[in-house]
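**User:** Everyone, produce a chain:

**Assistant:**
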Amino acid sequence: MSSQPTIRLPLRTPSKRSPDRGRFLRALLPKCNFTLYNSQVERPTFLLGTGTLMAISRQVDLLEPINLAEHLDKVELYLGQVCQIAGISKMQLDYWTNKAQIPTKGKKQRIYDMDALETVMLIKQAKDKGLNLGAAIEAARRFREIRPSVN
């Protein structure tokens, strides 16, 4: 193996329904000096030559770290996404939203912000520790009063 630095990138594999399976790789290989590398059967990858590495490293130098916490107030989640994150069913979330009066947006489908997600997760945590729903809602409400919100 050469001592030159290389970058691994995942190959884009076309879907099984695509009539042009493999066309993406065949189109790239003649044009560029790629070395094939297969670390996993499901996700093949390839290595780029050093000329490409230099161009990418110059581009990377332009970038700065991003603080995602500054942007959490913009995130909105659908009911199913909140259920998946909190580990509860859609029926539970629907019931808790009504019972705890968790604010949502949207008319046809409920949309939750990060504060609502935090409330749901606090209720879930309290329920997991043995509180009934009413006590869990009250505990979440009091916890949020004494502690600043996510935003």
